[in-house]
Protein 1
Amino acid sequence: LARLEQPEELNAEERKQHCCSLREAAEEAVHQSESLAQLREIDVKVDGRAETFVPLDRRDAVLLCSNLLVNALQHSPKHGKVLLSLTQENGSVRFTVQDWGEGIAEEDQPHLFHPFYRGDVSRSRKSGGTGLGLSICKAICDRAEGSINITNHAGGGALVTVALPAYTGPLLPTCSASVKA
């Protein structure tokens, strides 16, 4: 969080060099969270075949996707499902994470992105979070001049919507989100 909140020391040309595939980052997050999903018997789907490049360092993109996915897995009922969706239109990439868990309490809504805020204390102890994940996600979105919003959806559960500018520069070798083991 501290690293993300520091001013970026890149000039405009260096900033243009940062890009990654958000679809690959989402797939990496699913891979990293596979054992938690299996343990909780939650079906995770990624909807979006198109390449969606965004102006983020690949590590930050994977961290963003992973934090949001782990939150959804922790707050989903056993045998539930989580849906990650990616779309791109009008120069913007939209990434959503939807679960069918308990949703967000109205009194927690204004505080979701505050560092160390964990909402329902009993639920936080069960999930083991520190209250930094959503703060980190917001800092990543802010740094990329994007946005993040969390609401409850009609089917029950939370819906996280991330909007990021689409990367429009030349595709460079650094534009892959694949993490080498």
Protein 2
Amino acid sequence: EPFSNLDVELRERLSIEIRDILKDQGTTAILVTHDQHEAFAMCDKVGVMQQGRINQWDTPYNLYHEPQTRFVADFIGKGVFITGRVTAPAEFDTEFGPMTSDRCNCEKAIGRDVDILLRPDDLLPDPEGPVWAKVIERAFKGAEILYTLQTQQNTRLLALFPSHHNHAVGEEVRVRIQAEHLICFPHQD
């Protein structure tokens, strides 16, 4: 973990410089880190390890948007799982209404419950949105604010809004879910 003791700004600048040097030289390197942001920024391929074994070896984009296991989905990035019932090979009924996916083919699971991954960037602030939620936590991140929301059905969601959408804890907000690529796994109680 060569950058772990550096301040954030120096770490980001130095990691980009080193990546550029390695690319220019055509050199392959292995970076070991616990910092997902660092791995995503520097690496063409990332391996996610679980109990000493690589669980998924893929591009950063695919690890985030197409996790192959529930462990990778839960480990990479932030997100929550909501329950949905499969109504057709790529269609689900959820407490937030019907959802469809261009990537989930659940033909063998029709009529069964599945857990659908929602990332914070799948929720958009919308004053006319169908989902009402109360802000229960907020984490200011500069250009963005990560909100933990609680719906009227007591479901917790994570939402990443531009920071000019400045909401206080306890305030009610309206959102819409715009999940273009749903990832689902067998339902777990």
Protein 3
Amino acid sequence: VLMLVSIDTSNGKITLFNISRDAMVDVTMYSAGGAYAGTEKQQICLSYAYGDGKESSCENTVNSVQRLFYNIPINTYFSLDLDGIAALNDSIGGVEGQSYHLVGQQAESFVRTRDTSKVDSNNMRMQRQKVYIQSFMNTVIQQTKKDLTTPLDLFNASAPYSCTNLNPSKVTYLAQQAVLGGMNGIDM
């Protein structure tokens, strides 16, 4: 999943832009040794591959997303390994949907699986990701309204599986601003 998240700290509004992995954008390429090799129009999902799998991969992906959104400034990134999906899901007690209650590995399977024999399998997967993320975020929002430390707990639960330039104080600040602004849900 590749998303751009906007948090309006003046009113607590959270907007998520789901970016298709198939979106074409100028991707900065690097050699195996890390030397700049130019840019080429490629699928945005490939931008992560030109890096170390951590900070430089995240920064290259941020650059690609910025290009896709006409050089919008992006200050923060958060990358989660697939193994972290189950940990985050379970740290809020699971995610309940219209027909499902997902725990552990079920969450990863739900958001990751696609039928590669179908042309639009990525779009179908993106729809499942949207359903999951909306349910996940609604659960987080409700829990945060009861306990302001919920986002920090999530941040800490994700730490072994993530790469980010966020820190605990920024997570706490954003959570406070969202709650004080009347955070009621997300737009996606």
Protein 4
Amino acid sequence: HIPGLLAQTLGHEDLFTRLMAGQTLVTGNSRLARVLKNQYDRWRASRGDRQWQSPVIIAWNTWMERLWETASLRACPGTGYAVPGPRQLISLWESTLKNATLTHSLLRPEALASQLRETRELVVEWQLNPADPSWFSGENENHAAFYQWNRVFEKRCKKDHWISPEDRLAPLCNALRAGLLPASATVNLLGFDEFTPARMGILAALAEN
């Protein structure tokens, strides 16, 4: 439970009234954001409105990008790194695989890059510890390989001043708790089955802010 985070059931009328008042809506994915924008426009038109300001309806990832941009412009600690785009991130993983010790046993390193990107995102979002001894029991070859590749990937990012998108959450939390980012107005969240520990950290920091 996060103080300040309230779960509610809202109809479209109540939700769109909030958006009309200037509140922000963060959705679980970009498709839901597009659908709600279209529905909001139809709702405004049905009211007889001829023109209106676009509602602030954004997907979680886009919201994080905006927060990161603000934090970077304010030179918040930990934000002095470049964030690779989707293609650049895959390229970084491919480069990691091609230069790693275990590459000789892979027939198509490039096919594994996207899977490793997704696995690392889950590990960070759920705040798992890849170095925990329990992962290495029973000769878990898959984990041993991921552990090694991930270490090489992180060293490469640190050396070249990259930061993987999922790693932005920690410095953003610190910046919010330290009051280095402007306080946010009311934020509504919709379309999330559950929040990972990393995302809960962001929400808790926002509530404190």
